[in-house]
Every structure is written in structure tokens, then in C-alpha cells.
Input
Amino acid sequence: MKTFTGSCHCQTVQFEIDTDLSELTTCDCSICIKKNALMIKVHESSMRILSGKESLTTYQFHTNTAEHYFCKVCGIYPFHRKPIIMV
Ligand SMILES: [Zn+2]
Output
């Protein structure tokens, strides 16, 4: 397990995640398809927002279950949060 850092373009939002990078995935929702984004799934306990939390805004659509986070300053979409679905 390693710690990786990430940020938006203007560096206002900075975060880190703990992951072994075992599986890069794509998301099939309409916004991620347009962005062609590759992502890594981590439990939210493995992610820490280091700065810029107050500069994040969310965008939701369709079923309003996922929260897509954007930096209010530069508009970059650094991560999203999906609810855990128990079946
Ligand atoms: Zn930014």
C-alpha cells in the first residue's frame, strides 16, 4: 500500500489516497464517459482532503446518488463519491 497525492489544476484542492493501484477503471456514467477519465476506487477512509475543502462544489444528476466534486476556482473534477450499495 502506497500513499499518492492528487490535486486540481490550480492546487487549491489537494488530497491523498492510500492504494496499491490494483485496478484502474472507467466509470460508465454520462459525465465520466465525456471526460474519458481513468480512476482508482478507494474506500473513503483511505482518502484525505489536505486543503481546499471549502473550494469544492458538487454536481449531481440523474438519480442524484453520486457526488461529483469540482474545484470552484479552476473547474477541475478531481474525484467523486458514490454511495455503497448493499445487496
Ligand atoms: Zn482548482
